[in-house]
Each structure stands twice: as structure tokens, then as C-alpha cells.
Amino acid sequence: MSAREEILGRIRRAVAEAPEAPEAGIPRAYRTAVPCDDLAGLLAERIADYRAIVHVVPVALVPARLAELAAGKRIAVPDGLPAEWAGPAREAADAVLTDPARDELGAADAVLTGCAVAIAVTGTIVLDAGPGQGRRELTLVPDHHLCVVRADQIVAGVPEAIARLTPDAPLTWISGPSATSDIELDRVEGVHGPRTLEVVIAI
Amino acid sequence: MSGAGRGRGSVTFIGMPRSFRENAAEAMQDAQLGRNLRKATHTIRGKRARVVEELPDWAELREAGRAVKDHTLRHLDRYLLQLEEAVTRAGGHVHWAADADEANRIVTELVRATGESDVVKVKSMVTQEIGLNEHLAAHGITAYETDLAELIVQLGDDWPSHILVPAIHRNRTEIREIFRDRMAAWGRPAPEGLSDEPAALAEAARLHLRERFLSSKVAISGANFMIAETGTMVVVESEGNGRMCLTLPETLISVVGIEKVLPTWRDLEVFLQLLPRSSTGERMNPYTSMWTGATEGQRFHLVLLDNGRTGVLADEVGRQALRCIRCSACLNVCPVYERAGGHAYGSVYPGPIGAILTPQLRGMGSELDNSLPYASSLCGACLEVCPVAIDIPEVLVELRARARHPRSERMAMRAAGWLLADQARLSRAQRLAVRLRRLIPRRLPGPASAWTDTRDLPEIPEESFRDWWERS
Ligand code: SF4
């Protein structure tokens, strides 16, 4: 008998006498929508709690702010990054690496991306490898991740985010910079992921 | 290292004294360990309480989490088959392993097929449960742990002592020594003049592993959740070593216990709220990776592991232990864990969850596993914080009834719980202990003597029992 048949058989015997636990009986009385009148404000506050850098910037001023932030850096950008973000970064940066291969990634000081969804309550940005976000390694290897969030991408809580996302493409949920508390429980920002997370919220 | 208990492979910590009581008594003599543990458990406990407090619907989330898990376990066969189909449809390969030996064999063959002899690993309790690293080593394959704490444990030739912070028994000076002495043997040496600042030590780990991440062709992970409906795997982490391992290598092998499956994508809206807040006490952990099948050109293998889980599932009282999402909240509130430390439990699963899971997974054949159900004062704090409402005290009592155990052990454990639970009786015991100290110098009176008889009371002559207990 294969391990598969053996395990399935054991499971069926194990639960044969167990009480029913129907799907319809799962109580979902928790909040699936959280009321919030200032999504961008809450998101900014919660991301800052993780010791990430946050800028809340009117949409019209985002290009200028991105130019400032990109100045003097070697910036990696994914394909499909909106021209109004990529353009100013391109002009101000020392060099721009568009959708770089892995061996070029190490040369980037920072990576500039958009995101798919942001969750205000938890201070989380979610990337889904869509346009302007790139392959997963793009936002992992460079030491500085610069991420632009549009106001319409912000939801209040985790259930609203799950409802907007599908897992067909790989998802990366990011809540602050890479961190560890493994040594005497002292929090240290920056282990293997980007040590600096900088989020521009366009309102 | 890997022994067979009723046809299951499992790893028992080597060099362990026989019973939990003896292990605990030894740990209690280590004052440094005691301070580290107390600081860790109390800090995380406080953070957890604050972020749980923030959610007005915590009780409802917890109830949903419990019910989703119970429903899934009741129909586990159906959901595993659905998962298998979804993963396969997405280009992944699914393997089934009835026990540790089979899982180790499958993984070894998969690694061999790549022609590689090095693999990078994301922290995974299940691969520790089955002794995968040791098995790979015996077949000429080196597994490199990449989580900072697991790296400390691996370089120090040591065992994890906490689910979330496995190296919490080590202080910064010890960690610096381990890095200085051992890193070179495993790859890039520690930087010259390494200080014992946590930031410097984390930087040393970053440098040590960076090249390895970029060059490794094979990674091995576990998973926190698997979604049957979509075939999606979920890994929750903090450092980014998980993202490195999951993203960069050409081949990814995930070894996951069969109880980790959830029916639907939507179920994550519950568990991604329950887990981070219960575990690290954050609103969300820094990184969560989700992928479905073969992703971005990677080959993906999923090894579904039983290794005693179906035995637990058959137990009408004990099966609730399979709801566990390994958050470690129960460790952080447990007065016995705080004093005994993680190693005393003699398994990869320490604390209250270990006390009910290990004897069920391994059977109660050994002295150690037989004594684990007594590693509790039955105070109930674990049940209160458990995000999936596992009634750990209920399972402990049930397992105690089944344990073949000397009466003195039962009495001793009960006495320890009784002493911890009741302040008034505790202070009476203190006074009595101090008074009797000169008369019976090496033992505490009554049933507590069995619990304390490896303690050398005269070493701490003028202390009350409570101070001694607190300090130990
Ligand atoms: S038993 Fe509950 S509290 Fe303990 S680790 Fe498991 S889920 Fe967390």
C-alpha cells in the first residue's frame, strides 16, 4: 500500500466516530470590515511603528519626492512601474537598472516598486508580482525598498485584503523592515531582507 | 538519533536525563537561563496582551479559528486530496510520508536528484521532529540553517529551547563566542573584532549567509498553512531568511505536517490575525510569503507528513492538539516552562503544547514521554491564551490517567503545581522550608522532596523557598 493510501485510510478510521463539525457550523462573527475614516493616516502610523520610514505625499508631489529619494542612488525598477514614478527616479538616480537579473541585483542600492494592497490596521504592504512590482527577488536582495502606495490600494483590515487578493501569483506581505529578536529578545532591524523600508503614501 | 517509537521515527534529545522532573531540576540550577527565560516570556507575554487587546473581536476570531481547524481535521482526507490536486495543477509535486524515515528518504532522494550536496533551510519544527538534518548529513548532504536563532543552535551544536526564539537560552556573550569559534567551519568566518551587540551579531549572520543564499540551488522549508482550495503555501517569518530560501533556489522542498491544511483562501483572514499577535506580539510579522505550486521558474515539491498525527487524530480528547498553530503563546505564560526551560521537555515541542503533543506523537513508552503530562501545574493560563482554544489542561489530565508512573512522581508534580498555584500555602511552605532546612538540609519536606531532591539546598542557605524557586 502506498503511503498516500495508508495515511488516508488512517485518517478515515481516526475520524469515523468523531463528532460532526460541518462547514456551516463555523462561526464567522468577527469583523470582516473595519470602519476607518483615515486609512492613509492609520497606515502611516502603523508602518512607522515598525521603524520604517513613511512619507504621506499629495499625488501631484509624488514624482518630485521620488526624485529626491532616488538622487545619487543606483535604483532597480521592475517592468511596468508607472511612468510618473519611474521617470523622475530615472532622472535623479545615478543609475537605473530595469528588471535586473540576479547577478546585477547586488549592484542596486535600492529598489522602487508599487504594491497591490496595503492594510492600514496592521501597517502591511502586499506585493503580488504584478506590473510595477517585479519578481520576488527584486524587493529582497537590495538593502533599501522604496514602495509607493496609492490611496485606492489601502484597505482597513486583513479580511478586506484577503478579499482583494488572489494567490495565483506569489504574494509577499511586508510589515516593516527585516527584523530579529533572537538575541536576548533585543529587536534588531535588518537581518537578511532590506534593512530600510521606505513607504510613500500618495494621497 | 532517530529512533522508532511504535513504527514512527522521532528525535529524542541526546544526553538528556531520564524524566522531565530531572531535566527541569537541572535547568533550574542555571541562573542565567532562568533570567533569560523570564525576560523573554514576560516581554512577549506583555506585547501579546497589548495587541490582542486592540482587537475587539478577538474572541470571535479565536472561535472561528477553533471551528475551522475542527472542521478541517474532521474532513482531513478530503482536504488533503483537494490540496494535492491544486498543488499538482499549479506545477508542484506532492509526496506522502507515513513516518519520519519515509520523509527523510524522500527528501534525500529529491536533493540527490539535483546533484547538490548543500541545502539551505528555513526554520522548521517538523524537520527537527524527523531529524532531517542528521539524516541528510549521514548521506553526505549538509543542511545550513538560516534563521538567526537556528544558526546559533546549529553552530553551537545545541537544541532549540523555545518555539519562537529557539536560542533564548544563550546570552549575547555566548553567541559571540559561538560565532567566533564556529562560523569559519560552516562558511564565511565571523568578522574580526566582533562585538557582542545584538546588531553586530545579526550583521555577522547576514554576511555569513548572504553568499550562500545567492548560490544555493536547493532549499528546504516547512509551512505555517496550506490552502486546500488553491494549493497555496504560507510561510510566516521575521528576518527575510525565509524569503531568501523560498525565492532564490531552483528547487524548493517543503515538508509539512498534514494538520497544517486549511480549507479555503478566506480562512487566512482568521489565521493571519491570530498567529502574529499570539506569537511575536506584533500586529503583523515582518514577512509572509505565499506561493502556489511551481513559482517563477522554481521546481516545487511538497512532502506531506503523518509521523504519528493520525494517531493523535484518533484520540477523542487528544486530537484537539492538532489545532495548534505553533504560536508559542502557551510557553510564555507557563510557570513550569519559565522555570524548567525548553530543553527539559526533551523534544522539539517544548512547553504546554509539547507536554501534550510529544507523548501523543511518540507514544508514552519512555520515562521522559511518560513524565511530560506532569510538566504542568494545571493553572490553565495556556488555555486562556491559546488562539485556537486547545484545552491543554484537559488533555494533560487525560494523559496522566494513561501514564504508567511512579506515585512519587505524580505527588511531586502535583506538589509543585500546588505550590505555584497557591500563594498562601506557598508562603507557609517557605517558612517551613527555612525552619526545616537545618534539620533536613538536602531535601524539602513532604511530597516536594521528589521534585527538589536534585537541588542542593545548603548552597543557598538563608533563602526562603519562594526566593529559591524564583531565583532558580
Ligand atoms: S497550543 Fe495554542 S498557544 Fe500553544 S503553541 Fe499551539 S496554538 Fe499556540
Question: Which SSEs are present, and which pair or pack?
Answer:
The complex is a heterodimer of chains A (203) and B (472).
Chain A: H1 3-15, H2 39-49, E1 53-57, H3 62-70, E2 74-77, H4 83-92, E3 95-98, H5 102-105, E4 110-113, E5 117-119, E6 124-127, E7 144-150, E8 154-155, H6 158-164, E9 171-174, E10 179-180, E11 188-189, E12 196-202
Helix pairs in contact in A: 3-4
Chain B: E1 2-5, E2 8-11, H1 20-27, H2 31-53, H3 58-74, H4 76-89, E3 93-97, H5 100-114, E4 118-121, H6 125-129, H7 132-138, E5 142-145, H8 148-155, H9 172-186, H10 198-215, E6 218-221, E7 225-227, E8 232-237, H11 241-247, E9 251-257, E10 261-262, H12 268-279, E11 287-292, E12 299-305, H13 309-313, H14 329-332, H15 335-340, H16 351-362, H17 367-371, H18 381-385, H19 392-402, H20 407-421, H21 423-436, H22 448-452, H23 465-471
Parallel strand pairs in B: 3-12, 4-5, 4-6, 6-9, 7-10, 9-12
Antiparallel strand pairs in B: 1-2, 7-8, 8-11
Helix pairs in contact in B: 3-12, 9-10, 16-19, 20-21
The site of iron/sulfur cluster has 14 residues of chain B, from helix 14.
Taking the sheet with the most strands of chain B, its summary is: 6 strands, parallel
**Greatest interface (CB-CB under 8 A), with counts per chain:** A-B, 74 and 93 residues
Widest β-sheet, arrangement of strands of chain B: 3-12-9-6-4-5
Could you describe the largest sheet of chain A, including whether it forms a barrel? Answer: 6 strands, parallel
Radius of gyration of chain A: 21 Å
Question: How many beta strands in the DSSP annotation of chain A?
Answer: 12
Instruction: Quickly count the helices of chain B.
Output: 23
Overall residue-averaged pLDDT value of chain A = 95
- Pairing-aware structural class of the strands and helices of chain B? alpha/beta
CATH level-four homologous superfamily name of chain A = NagB/RpiA/CoA transferase-like
Rg measurement of chain B, Å: 22 Å
Oligomerization status of the protein chains: heterodimer
Which stretches of chain B are poorly predicted, pLDDT < 50 over at least 5 residues? 1-12, 418-472
Number of helices of chain A: 6
Q: What portion of residues of chain B is helical?
A: 40-55%
CATH architecture of the largest domain in chain B: 3-Layer(aba) Sandwich
The rounded distance between the terminal residues' Cα atoms of chain A is 61 Å
Number of self-contained structural domains of chain B: 2
Considering DSSP H and I runs of 4 or more, what fraction of the residues of chain A is helical?
25-40%
- The share of residues in extended strands of chain B comes to 5-15%
The dominant shape of chain B is globular
